[in-house]
Design a protein that fits this description.
It contains six helices and two strands. It is globular, with a radius of gyration of 15 Å. The model has no long low-confidence stretch (mean pLDDT 86). It has a single domain, classed as NusB-like (N-utilizing Substance Protein B Homolog, Chain A). It is mainly alpha-helical and 156 residues long. The two termini are 25 Å apart. It has a two-stranded antiparallel sheet with strand order 1-2.
């Protein structure tokens, strides 16, 4: 994989989190959000830092996958949260980060899980203080390990 592909996926991840947040807060329909981002926002910015153009296919796979599989994704996340915590109690941005991360872990087997976990932990750290970033990292790492174990019982 080239550095450009990696950078384009990184931008797609950030934009997918922003799009899911917008869908959650403003109740923007999926097709509207995909069109809006595709036409106007595929060149991402974070705190006025220009990011590489996003991989639009990866962006769309993440959004469509989260919407189509949200019940299963949410159940998986809920099962990994600490006792007495539920996904609904988390900040909308953190929910979007976790949902995108789990979607990618479940449906992008060609991308190493360590890359997925690291990328979404970085996104969480960009939006939050240490606690939420650490939580995203730990939860997604836990999901990745359980998925690896489900595929190969000998895996860690």
């Amino acid at each position: 994989m080239s550095a450009d592909t990696h950078d384009a996926r990184s931008s797609a991840r950030l934009l997918s989190v922003q799009a899911l947040y917008q869908m959650d807060i403003a109740r923007t329909p999926l097709e509207v959000i995909i069109r809006e981002f595709s036409e106007h926002r595929m060149e991402a910015k974070l705190d006025d830092i220009e990011l590489p153009p996003a991989d639009s296919a990866h962006f769309e796979m993440l959004l469509r996958g989260v919407v189509e599989n949200q019940t299963d994704i949410d159940l998986l996340i809920d099962g990994k949260l600490a006792e007495n915590w539920r996904l609904a109690r988390l900040d909308s941005t953190l929910r979007a980060i976790l949902r995108c991360g789990v979607q990618e872990l479940l449906n992008a087997p060609h991308i190493p899980p360590k890359v997925v976990v690291s990328q979404y932990a970085d996104i969480a750290h960009a939006f939050f203080e240490e606690k939420e970033g650490g939580m995203a990292n730990a939860l997604l790492d836990n999901v990745a390990k359980s998925l690896a174990t489900d595929k190969d019982p000998a895996a860690i």
